[in-house]
Amino acid sequence: MTTQPVYPDLKGKSVFITGGGSGIGAELTKAFLLQGAKVAFVQRSDATAFCDEMEKETGNRPLFIPTDITDIAALKSSIAKASDAHGPVTVLVNNAANDQRHATLETDEEFWDWSQSINLKPYFFACQAVIPGMQEAGGGSIINFSSISYMMGAGGFPAYTTANSGINGLSRSLAREFGPDRIRVNALAPGWVFTQKQLDKWATPEGVAKHLELQCLKDKLVPEDISGGILFLASDSSKMMTGQMMVIDGGVVVTG
């Protein structure tokens, strides 16, 4: 496992993560727990065993709130519960997403709306829900997960890449609007991170080899490679960084 630096200002911080019990999200939960943060997370599937594991491993138990993020009222209620338990959320990580493959000519309105209800809509409303508490607290950090897939013009999931691009625009607009409140809003775009889901569904040997050819660095990305960037964006070490897109992809895309 990658050794992460310690950010003293994250100790005791109220952190809220969507999809924080599996994949990249689970690694983020663990990383914040190791910093001494108070972590709450939501997802649909039961994460009790994961919470037990984290408490044993880190000595710091996360608060799991079963939630379907497509239910905006439930999402807002979960953020309120996290704030009641840990104090106003001052670090929000919008991580949950679904990159289900689909063909343009076979995509109907129902699928399109379903995709946006997971990959874009809850990002906005989670931000909306935490901002008043951040204003009262004197600031905060919002980190929205995007993906390099839209930057690459990747095919095979246009509803997903549309949401990714929208997340970047959302982050920049909110950064401008709430900068005077010392609320920072940044996006993070990972490359192809080999979570268990990716390995089970889409990571064929041929596909992996082709993608690694695109990377400057030839190692496979794993969830631990992403958590360091998230900790940095959450901490005061990035206190003058907002409205930006951080890319962690092994060198597939070049920004600037």
Account of the protein in words:
The chain has ten helices and seven strands. With 256 residues, the chain is an alpha/beta fold. The model has no long low-confidence stretch (mean pLDDT 95). It is 46% helix and 14% strand. The protein has a seven-stranded parallel sheet with strand order 3-2-1-4-5-6-7, with helices on both faces. Helix 1 crosses helix 10, helix 3 (72-86) packs parallel to helix 5 (121-137) and helix 4 runs parallel beside helix 7. The chain has helices at residues 23-34, 48-58, 72-86, 109-119, 121-137, 149-152, 158-178, 196-201, 205-214, 224-234; strands at 14-18, 38-43, 63-66, 91-94, 140-145, 183-190, 245-248. Belongs to the short-chain dehydrogenases/reductases (SDR) family. InterPro entries: KR_dom, NAD(P)-bd_dom_sf, SDR_fam. Keywords: Oxidoreductase.
What is the CATH superfamily classification? NAD(P)-binding Rossmann-like Domain
Rg over CA atoms, rounded to whole Å, is: 17 Å
Strand order of the largest sheet: 3-2-1-4-5-6-7
Number of DSSP strands?
A: 7
Q: Sketch the topology as an H/E string, one letter per element.
A: EHEHEHEHHEHHEHHHE
User: Which percent band covers the strand fraction?
Assistant: 5-15%
CATH class (first level) name:
Alpha Beta
Task: Calculate the mean pLDDT score and round it.
Answer: 95
The helix-and-strand class reads alpha/beta
The N- to C-terminal Cα distance equals 31 Å
CATH-level-2 architecture = 3-Layer(aba) Sandwich
- Dominant shape: globular
Number of domains: 1
